[in-house]
Write the structure tokens for this entry.
Amino acid sequence: MGAVDQTTTGGHLERYDEALARDPISAFGLVREWLRSDWRALFAELRERRPIFVTPAFTVVTRFADVTEVLSRETVFSVRAFGPRLDAALGGPFMLGRDATPMNWRDKGLMQVMLDPRDVAGVRELAGRLADERLDIAWPSGGVEAVHGLFRPVALGVSATYFGFPGPDAQTLSRWTRAIVTDGFANFLGDPKIQAASVRAGSEMIAYLRERLAERRAALRAGRRLPDDVFTRLAATALPAEIGVDDERILINMAGLPLGFVESAPGAMVEAVEQLLLRPEVLAQAIEAAGDPDPARFDRHVWEALRFNPFFKLLPRLCERDYVLAAGTPRATMIPAGTLVLAAPASAMFDADVVAEPEEFRLDRPGHHQLFFGFGQHACLGVHPARAVICEAVRRLLLRPGVRLLPPPEGRVVRAGGIFPDRFVLGLGAEGQEQ
């Protein structure tokens, strides 16, 4: 069964088809550049004309129904596209790199118990306190570098206090997470240097955690009081040997916590803040809502802002067998086994067939239209604390008077590797206060 009509009349697709006929490598480069710099327009064109966009290198899936179909068919669309890289870094199998296996089911269940949703209020208070500490430091200068001066320290502080994983120091933990996540999710060409850096970082991380686990076990045996963090909960949990949760499973699952948080949470904070600051009327409403004792009133501003520029725009999957995607619709397409499939939540959240008035900023959107934390088998385990941390850090920033974008180049988000926000300078206080 073939795809829907893929003839073109202009725009991105016309340029792509011309490049593909002339030089397939240049066509691939065009798509990569558009995904970084012009994704909204590209996805809009694809949803309308080629919702299942087949290229020689990969297939991009753009409609809401098709994206959720891919992400919920884990036995067909597996995480083998990136799972082996995470396994290599951590020195053993990691649940995120396994689909519909007993290990995935067991480890995911264990970590869901450890990341108790009842922790949310305390985690939110922690994130707010960490944000205020950084903002107090930045305030006299009249500005803040929001990535390394605010949002990333908040994420690292939550990792240290709530996860119980501070690293030897925040800078080292930050280096580890960036190296491993870059290889797993941004090393599209398989650069061996990036892979080697990831393996080194993972080896150092696991060695560090192994020492910390031994220390906690010794403290528990001695009856010493330990903080109620996730690491202590894991160290203190005794399960039957038949369950198979040994120390290596504990170490690898602990390593996965900052990997799923330290890059994505600050990334989401940056994108949401930028989108709010670009909309003065919405910003005024968000600032007013930030003072409301009900956090839900403020939080919906963050999630709608983030829809306009999600941190993770594509989720890679590998098609394990021939499969007809969107069967029974005009866009039905045979996806051959071995195809790299890029499901695009960023596009799905603008699909007018599901999302009403997608180009409008609306606060009444239902939660099931939000795909920021994935969908299906590999939806984010730590969604409850992560949502609280992201929203509270943004709220504390907006409670400060005079938060504003600065003129370029200072006020522009600078990205490492074209993906990770690495610098974003904001003004604080009265105009002209910046030093």
In short: Residues 1-10 have pLDDT under 50 and may be disordered. Residues 159 and 165 are 5 Å apart (CA to CA). The first helix runs from residue 11 to 22.
